[in-house]
Amino acid sequence: MSDLSSLSSPSSSANPRVRFAPSPTGFLHVGSARTFIFNWLFARHTGGAMILRLDDTDVERNTQQSVDSIFEGLKWLNLGWDEQYKQSERLELHGKVAWAIFDKGLAYRDFTPAHTGEAEKSGAQGTWLFNPDAREMPREESDRRAAAGEPFALRFRVPRDAGETVRFSDAVYGEQVKATADIEDFALLRSDGMPTYHIASCADDADLRISHIIRGQDHLTNTFKHVLIFEAAGARPPQFAHLPLLVAPDGTKLSKRRHGPVVSVTTYRDAGFLPEAFINFLCLLGWSPKNDRENMSVRELTDLFSLEGINRSNAVVNFKESPAVAQEAGTQSGRNHAIPNTDEVRVRNPLLISEETFDPKALWLNAEHIRGLALQDLSARLLPIVAEAGFSVTPEKILEITPLIRERIKLLRDVLTAADFFLVDQLPPYDPAELIPQKGDAAMALQVLNKARAVLPNVEFKHDPLDHALRAAAQELGLKAGQMFQPIRVAVCGRKNAPPLFETLQVLGKEKTLARIEQAMAKLGSASV
RNA sequence: GGCGCUAUCGUCUAGGGGUUAGGACGGAAGAUUCUCAAUCUUCAAACCCGGGUUCGAUUCCCGGUAGCGCUACCA
What we know:
Elements: E1 17-20, H1 30-46, E2 49-54, H2 64-77, E3 83-86, H3 91-103, E4 107-110, H4 132-135, H5 139-147, E5 153-156, E6 165-170, E7 174-179, E8 187-189, H6 197-207, E9 212-216, H7 222-232, E10 239-243, E11 246-247, H8 256-259, H9 265-271, H10 275-283, H11 298-304, E12 315-316, H12 323-332, H13 342-347, H14 360-372, H15 375-388, H16 395-405, H17 415-418, H18 420-423, H19 442-455, H20 463-477, H21 481-493, H22 501-508, H23 510-528
Helix pairs in contact: 1-11, 3-6, 6-7, 10-14, 15-16, 19-20, 19-21, 19-23, 20-21, 20-22, 21-23
The structure holds one RNA strand.
């Protein structure tokens, strides 16, 4: 009954079944997100099923906060999944499979106390394979000590015959072979009875009829152990596909502590990335459609995705370490770098992340996707951001503003800085000198504004009439168009860099425009006296 | 230390025994425009090192080096 052979041979025509199996011990980071995405893409491309499984057998380190963070991130990705499981609710299965392996003589009890860890970890560590005393312990003695209540771990009895090998074929890395002589007798069950990752994962993969395991390359060498487990449990190993790892610019693996919030999915969300752009970006790290396409929708990615397009070398997420993080890392070097809460603080202040922190390509792709969005769609995504920032604007107003900023923002949150002057009643203070046009002086600025104030009340606030009126005005004053437009632009926007003038005035409206021109003139007057 | 994986512009990548080694981001310059963007054009920028195989290697093989991973009763 506990043998998995009956469970594990789906008919060959069955649709693929893949899983994403995060362990809730931290925030959902970009590497995990990419693994999820590749699995999802593979499932959708092949018409298979996507399964989400929480690998939560490490009760010590699991947190609800982490579970929440994972779901939060996945929800934002908006891809979904078909089935959902939790390993902690499947412990019985794991135990059964482990003991079935034991019953076949392929596992044994090890009464040696657990390693305390660090001691033999660094440097001089030899190649530990197993404790002969435990491995060779007669079954009677083992049973007796277990019956007496002595704690033990259950270990896999890795074959030790000379020349024996374990092999599997990886869809990305090709044929893999390893001598069993190089594989230690790994644990299946801990002394508290809880399953280890290896047995829980394999038992579930077999039971859930997972056909393809697509996961990070950090599991490549673990896979030999897993093949051993599958075979011992009488299950056929699934197809494996290992993904190259995502690493930081310094080549080390992504870590919240070292690299800050840029490795957390929700940071991208909060900074105003479009989920489809973020997905697009992640797909380009370690995978290529091989046709020079870069900007792709989720639909296109699904069509194009294949395991063959995955490459084998680690990819750098080219972010910049934020100054705060870098500085702190410097301060901490050589110390025990265990400052709690700092991660949390940064994660809760996503706005501290400056645009330059992100991988420039991610930013570019986001801008591309933003430009590709329909106006209605974009404005609908902008609205909540504006509202959350405390501005009360109507959807109609945002819709009017959207085309003016669409080509000028890289992140959704940029709406707050790109369209600020549409949103506020009172312009924040600015330097009156900004009002002075090229090759002009304060008098010219005043002259321009004065003219505008005279002309504008009688103009219809639409692009063309404004265009004609203001160009005519410039001509009358003997000024270049640019010299005419700049003082007005600064008067209404509070800065030189802004969307095209006529559209801006149209959206702003006559009343506000005239009021701001008035204020600008006052500023100039008081500044020059 | 042992075992494994990897190596093309700064970054993501395409390619592959003979190529001007392609694309993209970023950078630089220019065009355009009422500023800023967007857009367009152009430029700079790479096959880790050493052997071997070969008429010919960046490509295939071996070695080195480097990076990464695994080496837990973490996952």
